[in-house]
Amino acid sequence: MPPRRMARRGGGEETIWEGDEMLKYEGVDTEYSLAGKTAIITGAAAGIGFATAEFFRDKGANLVLADINPEVGKIAQGLGGSAIGVAGNVCDRAYPAQVIEAGVGAFGQIDILVNSAGIVALEAAEKISESDWNNTIDINLSASFFMAQAVGSYMIENKIGGSIVNMASQAGVIALDKHVAYCASKGGIIAMTKVLAKEWGAYGIRVNAVSPTVVLTALGHKAWDGPVGDAFKQEMPSGRFAEPEEIAACIAFLCSKAAGMITGHNLLIDGGFTIK
């Protein structure tokens, strides 16, 4: 693919590639197809990550499921289509390279990263422990950055462009009681997303974030079914929480050519909760 040169603000030039989707208009794909694309999805063994894997499978993508669950390989086989699993800890700094190597070995290249792995520690700010704070920041923010750094570097070195979607939250936009570490980590995800989009746009790499409200995964049901959840929903224009498939559909859109002009964006999927 022939390179061209582009002047950058602050001086110097940057090599970019004419075929990268954000740099060259190639029409709108109304089917939001991901056929032929290979996607790494972290936290893919359950919850939003698994729903995203199912949605991507139906859109024709090859899948690399990355999860701490040692059964992730079997989970990938159960999806059907073209899917492999790579078990490991996202906080292990060697893990991103292992996941990329497995994906490239199985499917030839990596086109998409979805950073979906995450945890939440619910505690008042004056009581949260150092370990809960550190674990939340390390898993939600640091691990997402180092996975994005590894995938972004791979895309730049191989001149292929691509799409990265980071899992933020409405908690990265507004304050929620007993969510101090979670809010900090998700606010960091949103800021990180903007910087990566700015720095990597010249390479044809789009970087976006999604910020859901409560999502009715198995854990979501456990935490929010009942009076507390009912009261929360009364504050939402939608009057309901989100289903995992709704988040997966938005992620798929952001990774498709239909979103070729969207980068550095934080897509709130919150039923209107944050507009008040």
Keywords summarizing the entry:
globular, two-stranded antiparallel sheet, 276 residues, alpha/beta, 9 strands, 8 helices, Rossmann fold, single chain
Characterization of this structure:
With about 280 residues, the protein is of the alpha/beta class. The chain has one domain (about 15-215, about 245-270): NAD(P)-binding Rossmann-like Domain (Rossmann fold, 3-Layer(aba) Sandwich). The protein contains eight helices and nine strands. The protein has helices spanning about 45-60, 70-80, 95-105, 130-160, 180-200, 220-225, 225-235, 245-255; strands spanning about 5, 15, 40, 60-65, 85, 110-115, 160-165, 205-210, 265-270. The strands form two sheets. Strands 5-4-3-6-7-8-9 form a seven-stranded parallel beta sheet, with helices on both faces. Strands 1-2 form a two-stranded antiparallel sheet. A hairpin with a 5-residue loop joins strand 1 and strand 2. Helix 4 packs parallel to helix 5 (about 180-200). The chain is globular and about 50 Å long. It starts with a strand and ends in a 7-residue tail after the last strand. Residues about 1-5 have low confidence and may be disordered.
